[in-house]
Design a protein that fits this description.
Helix content: 25-40%
Structural class: alpha+beta
Pfam families: 2OG-FeII_Oxy, DIOX_N
Bound molecules: ligand L4NPZUNZ, 2-oxoglutaric acid, fe (ii) ion
Number of helices: 8
Distance between the termini: 37 Å
Low-confidence stretches: 1-16, 184-198
Shape: globular
Largest sheet: 9 strands, mixed
CATH topology: Jelly Rolls
Number of domains: 1
Keywords: Dioxygenase, Iron, Metal-binding, Oxidoreductase
CATH class: Mainly Beta
Radius of gyration: 19 Å
EC number: 1.14.11.13
GO molecular function: gibberellin 2-beta-dioxygenase activity; metal ion binding
CATH superfamily: B-lactam Antibiotic, Isopenicillin N Synthase, Chain
Catalytic activity: gibberellin A1 + 2-oxoglutarate + O2 = gibberellin A8 + succinate + CO2
Strand order of the largest sheet: 1-2-3-13-10-15-6-5-4
Number of strands: 15
Length: 333
């Protein structure tokens, strides 16, 4: 596993640390082991040589930028985020706020074209091609996860997001620079690492992603941080040519806690606009998220009870962004 060089960050609660980088051109047996190791230790890694065309990525970025450059009224025609549609500063339904605007779409061609009606045909086609490409990447990674865990059915995880009824979604977040009039907030910005020196504004608050796997791509503006197992925040330098992968709560449950969903957040940038695009791979609503039998043994007793993605999603939307919702589904001894 290639580990990136140390990332300095001037805050007591963050520390310098490398994050795993997975080269998808390596041979399968090496790859599957590296992916499982990274998913156990961090629940997060960067993938390089991912095979997604640079043109597909840049066209989607252009469509996203064009959408956010429209007037508020025009953007609102994509519908209020209930949860799908255009949202500004409000995240979810329970009072969470962030310094961003976003568009959240169901990740299937019919819904994308329906929600995109008020935007453009180009937006719809481009987003569809992008979503298909990152979905294929997510499936490939999930097959490698199954191989690395030595599970017989290699498609045990990927088939959940390949299912026609998969509840996957796609989100574009747009974080404008913070224009502060508060002189106590220094407009410090570390160009070298593209992150705020003093994190004073939350772009997107601390949380874990509820789904199986998230594939994130951002422009060259930083702000993303992941929380290490010992509770320290690690700034992730942006890389617009590569993808970052997050293990979600559903994969943590399916693997009986062996792979961990990673808590992360985005700090607002004082100077530049960050734009990120996330594909959240999710199962169908009626899919069971109980730990797969291969992950349960006398040394590793069942951690979570039987529950469906639909039940979990209801819990997700009834709670706050930062809540530890998977704890509600722990097995009673
Ligand atoms: C505050 C909320 C927004 C969110 C649903 C929730 O009640 C808690 C989880 C949030 C989250 C985080 C990851 C994804 O961005 C998201 C789409 C998801 O599935 O869970 C968002 C939800 C949202 O913005 O609707
Ligand atoms: O915008 C980002 O970089 C990450 C946002 C995020 O974590 C999310 O939308 O779930
Ligand atoms: Fe997230």
């Amino acid at each position: 596993m290639v580990v990136s060089s140390a990332i300095p960050f001037r805050s007591k609660k963050t520390r310098a640390l490398g994050i795993p980088i997975i080269d998808l051109s390596l041979d399968r047996s090496q790859l599957s082991e590296q992916i499982v190791k990274a998913s156990e230790e961090y629940g997060f890694f960067k993938v390089v040589n991912h095979g997604v065309s640079a043109d597909v990525i840049s066209r989607t970025e252009t469509e996203g930028s064009e959408f956010f450059s429209k007037s508020l009224l025009e953007k609102q025609r994509a519908g209020p985020a209930t949860p799908f549609g255009y949202g500004c500063k409000n995240i979810g339904f329970n009072g969470d706020k962030g310094e961003l605007e976003y568009i959240l779409l169901e990740a299937n061609p019919q819904s994308i074209s329906e929600t995109s009606k008020s935007i453009s045909n180009n937006f719809s086609c481009t987003v569809n091609v992008y979503v298909q490409a990152v979905k294929d990447l997510a499936c490939e990674i999930l097959d490698l996860v199954a191989e690395g865990l030595r599970v017989k059915d290699k498609s045990i995880f990927s088939k959940l997001i390949k299912d026609v009824n998969s509840d996957s979604c796609f989100r574009i977040n747009h974080y404008p620079p913070i224009r502060t009039t508060d002189s106590s907030v220094p407009n410090l910005f570390d160009e070298q690492y593209s992150c705020n020196v003093k994190p004073t504004h939350i772009g997107f608050g601390e949380h874990s992603d509820p789904q199986i796997l998230t594939i994130l791509r951002s422009n060259d503006v930083g702000g993303l941080q992941i929380c290490s197992r010992d509770g320290l925040w690690i700034p992730i330098p942006p890389d617009s040519n590569q993808f970052f992968v997050f293990v979600g709560d559903a994969l943590q449950a399916l693997t009986n806690g062996r792979l961990v969903s990673v808590r992360h957040r985005v700090l607002a940038n004082h100077v530049k606009t960050r734009m990120s695009m996330m594909y959240f791979g999710a199962p169908p609503l009626d899919a069971c998220l109980s730990p797969i039998p291969q992950m349960i043994s006398s040394q590793n007793p069942r951690l979570y009870r039987h529950f469906t993605w639909g039940e979990y999603k209801n819990a997700v939307y009834s709670l706050r962004l930062a809540d530890h919702r998977l704890d509600l589904f722990k097995n009673q001894p």
